[in-house]
From TrEMBL:
This is Sugar phosphate transporter domain-containing protein. It comes from Rangifer tarandus platyrhynchus. The keyword Protein transport does not apply. It is a multi-pass membrane protein. Its main location: membrane.
């Protein structure tokens, strides 16, 4: 009976972790969009707040022995920290200048771009089935962008830069974790303050600092509370991702991601009254089909590889 109770408690904790990740992942998108639309808080300054809160949160976590920090040479993390700045800033600029649907679909292009980068730069090979799934993903994103009545050139540029830098960052994170033998939290613990310092230097060149509309400008209490809440939720997103992968598997997190993808798209049209044409809807379905097909084939290949390793004498 005790083991059954332990299993129930364990499943309950996993369900609670998944629910928390669902809530904070969706909340961060809508909250950031709300801050941009209703308060006009500067993008890079908001990203800086996220980085600082994330580092402080990780500092508390290591003091509570949630993870053990590992000493890493700063020179090895310089490019990674710079790409971390770029990916968050450009992703937020995409959110600021696009509808939530276009923003969310543009992020789906990360998978095809990662495959291209790994194929060209790291000579990694992918099966024909995996490569074919890139067609519906890309076609769906193009359909949505073409028929988006709120389409704007600047938003598209930011979305494209966001996808490129995010893809590079994800490839480099995997490579650095393997090279330095660290997990994602240990890497982020050293990377977040470096990225914060870089943004601190860059912000005065692109945004006002003390004047109206700057990070230290005359903001209302409600605006400051929303910005601080956004930073806390951004940290909770990172922490919950790490916890889910550590307590379930990357597969569970991946499949759960599709559910969040659909809810975020739907929520954008409900909360922000973003217009949705039939052709945009078809584009979204096309992209979702491609993502599901990619996940299915990827998991099948991983299971096949595991079976071969088990059968090997």
């Amino acid at each position: 009976m005790a083991s059954l109770a332990d299993r129930v408690r364990g499943n309950g904790r996993i369900a609670a972790g998944l629910l928390l990740n669902l809530l904070v992942s969706i909340c961060i998108v809508f909250l950031n969009k709300w801050i941009y639309v209703h308060y006009g808080f500067p993008n890079m300054s908001l990203t800086l707040v996220h980085f600082v809160v994330t580092w402080l949160g990780l500092y508390v976590c290591q003091k509570l022995d949630i993870f053990a920090p590992k000493s890493l040479p700063p020179s090895k993390l310089l490019l990674l920290a710079l790409s971390f700045c770029g990916f968050v800033v450009f992703t937020n600029l995409s959110l600021q200048n696009n509808t939530i649907g276009t923003y969310q679909l543009a992020k789906a292009m990360t998978t095809p771009v990662i495959i291209v980068i790994q194929s060209l730069c790291y000579k990694k090979t992918f099966s024909t089935k995996i490569r074919l799934t890139l067609i519906p993903i890309t076609l769906g994103v193009i359909l949505n962008s073409y028929y988006d009545v709120k389409f704007n050139f600047l938003g598209t540029v930011f979305a494209a830069l966001g996808v490129l830098v995010t893809s590079l960052y994800q490839v480099w994170v995997g490579a650095k974790q393997h090279e330095l033998q660290v997990n994602s939290m240990q890497l982020l613990y050293y990377q977040a303050p470096m990225s914060s310092a870089m943004l601190l230097v860059a912000v005065p060149f692109f945004e006002p600092v003390f004047a109206e509309g700057g990070i230290f400008g005359p903001w209302s209490v409600s605006a400051l509370l929303m910005v601080l809440l956004s930073g806390v939720i951004a940290f909770m997103v990172n922490l919950s991702i790490y916890w889910i992968i550590g307590n379930t598997s990357p597969v569970t997190y991946n499949m759960f991601g599709h559910f969040k993808f659909c809810i975020t798209l739907f929520g954008g049209y409900v909360l922000f009254k973003d217009p949705l044409s039939v052709n945009q809807g078809l584009g979204m379905l096309c992209t979702l089909f491609g993502i599901l097909a990619y996940t299915h084939f990827k998991l099948s290949e991983q299971e096949g590889s595991k079976s071969k390793l088990v059968q090997r004498p």
